[in-house]
Amino acid sequence: MQVAVTRRIDDDALAILASIGQLRYWDNDLPPDRDELLKLLDGVDGALMLLTDRVDAGLLDRCPSLRVVSNLAVGFDNIDVAACTARRVAACTTPNVLTQTTAEFTIALLMAVARQVVPAARAARDGDWKTWYPFRFLGRDLAGATLGIVGLGRIGASVAQMATGLGMRVVYSSGRTDERYQRLDIDELLETADIVSLHVPATPTTHHLIEAHALALMKSDAILINTSRGTVIDADALVAALEEGRLFGVGLDVTDPEPLPSDHPLYSFDRVTIVPHIASATMTTRMRMSSLAAQNVVAVLTGVEPPHCLNPEVLRNV
Ligand code: GLV
Prior knowledge:
The chain has eleven helices and twelve strands. The chain is an alpha/beta fold. The strands form two sheets. It has a seven-stranded parallel sheet with strand order 8-7-6-9-10-11-12, with helices on both faces. A five-stranded parallel sheet has the order 2-1-3-4-5. Helix 7 links the parallel strand 6 and strand 7 (169-172). The two termini are 14 Å apart. The relative contact order is 0.15. Glyoxylic acid binds next to loops.
């Protein structure tokens, strides 16, 4: 049995994979390019992959020995699941273990934006701290504010619970039903919320869900937070809204494209805080994710039900 790993990961996950065969390891912090990826996957039975690796019909046809692709992520917009299913390749992910961590980071980003933590810290570091300023770096209170969750799934629900603890009123627009919060349609949510937090997967339906019209509906001093996928926001429309002076602030853990080039106009706004897709990045959670991704591979290749498979119908004949 041969298993590929497409990025440098921790030893525990490597040991889980090595227990069933030979490893082909891309021992690098940067991803393989497409040709390197195809070479790495050539002849392997399974692969532990990252959200930066595109798994499409072309790749699957070039790698017919693949029986399982296991994403080190809960999101799977990099994987064409239908193409996997058509070729009887199991596609696996790592949900649950990152829910709380990602929700905590959403709150961290929200607080950072609401209280201008990043511009204030930059001013202090740059020597622009001359006195105690009564009316500088003024933020927005969260207690009493209305948080609009777009997508009440696992992570959205966890954010909702934390926000309730902070005294926020929570409304939501899609996902599971929860009687504790008011469900609104998306337009009503955008008009009502002081803070809008995005928690939907990247799909054709959610592509540019937040575009010019949606941004125009939002309160002019609202905060927008995105820890889901960058394509949910139309970045050009967001730049235009910011140029018009709309929105109190924006927090982006995810962007379109990723990485966001350093000359992108979004970086020019002090009230926009951008971080490089780190919402699930704690040591504990990343270790749990990589172990789970490895367990998915091992389970499929040893004929056991994997912890999280997107297309379990292929498992019968793997
Ligand atoms: C990270 O974005 C993930 O999908 O796990």
